[in-house]
Amino acid sequence: MDLLQIIFLALIQGITEFLPVSSSAHLIIPNQIWGWPDQGLAFDIAVHVGSLMAVLAYFRSDIQNFAQSGLRLLTGSKPDEHCILLFKIIIATLPLIVAGWFFKDLIETEMRLTLIIACSSIVFGAILWFAEKHNDHSSQSNITWKAVVLIGLAQTLAIIPGTSRSGVTMTAALFLKLSPETAARFSFLLSIPAILGAATLAMVDLLQADITVNWAELATGTILSGFSAFLCIHLFIKLLQRTGMTPYVIYRIALGIVLLTLV
Questions:
Q1: What is the pLDDT of residues 58-108, one digit of tens each?
Q2: Angle at the Cα of 252 (from 248 to 256), degrees rounded to 5?
Q3: Are 87 and 50 in contact (CB under 8 A)?
Q4: When you count CB atoms within 10 A of the terminal residue's CB, does the N or C end of the chain come out lower?
Q5: What are the structural domain ranges in the chain?
Q6: Rounded CA gap, 257 and 1, in Å?
């Protein structure tokens, strides 16, 4: 890849990983419009590692609380609020693990089509809009166990290219009357095991393929993806109360229409 392609793809991955707009939809555009070659599995892993580092850095206090609560639990203490939140993240992640295990090959070989991604972008964008209207800017911040299970089940829809993992989890949370801020925060925390799991599986595939990699390209992609992802998380949470989800809904539908013209 040339430097322009590395910079563009890394920034796009970092920005779209956490916005409810679908990173997979954006990563096919350069290939469709400019004929860029596929960036390869190694680069995909690198930019996802950058995104993972960004969310870990942004929620570093939560990660520290999870670790401390987990250690206290091992010494016989009762679960505190941080430990319970960690359990909720684990429970909500389990459905995605199961779905990814059973449908991994189907997703990689049959579903990464421009038509599917375009339709998913439009349909799930419309559902996100309806969820926000249904939510009526609720102030509910307590994530019940029922909500955890339902958000976890909704997250399995993210295996459909173009859906957006962050978008579908926020949509489910808004339908369940959680506040937009709580929905976004829980979605971002859920991204940690999701990205870690996906990157680990991809790493196994990479090692089995025995592919020669360009470490300078990977380092550049990781750094740019991490920087843009961190900035994106910060701005999204800061502006959420002011903008709501409508700008992302409009963007998703517009993007889907553009992709349909490329089919």
A1: 999 999 999 999 999 988 888 999 999 999 999 999 999 999 888 877 776
A2: 170
A3: no
A4: C
A5: 3-262
A6: 28
Q: What length does the chain have?
A: 263
Buried b (16+ CB within 10 A) or exposed e, 94-125: ebbeebbeeeeeeeeeebeebebbbbbbbbbb
**How far is C-alpha 210 from the chain's CA centre?**
27
Backbone angles phi, psi at 237, to 5 degrees: -65, -40
Mean pLDDT in residue range 16-40: 79
Which amino acid is residue 74, in one-letter code? Answer: L
Interatomic CA distance for residues 227 and 85, integer angstroms: 27
Stated pTM of the model: 0.91
Q: Angle at the Cα of 5 (from 57 to 209), degrees rounded to 5?
A: 80
* Nearest residue to 158 (alpha-carbon basis) of 132, 124, 127: 124
pLDDT number for residue 262: 81
| Cβ pair 164, 124 in contact under 8 A | yes
Whole-number pLDDT of residue 139? 65
**Alpha helix segments (H runs only) across 75-113:** 81-106
Question: Tokens in use for 119?
Answer: 């339709």
What pLDDT does 32 receive? 67
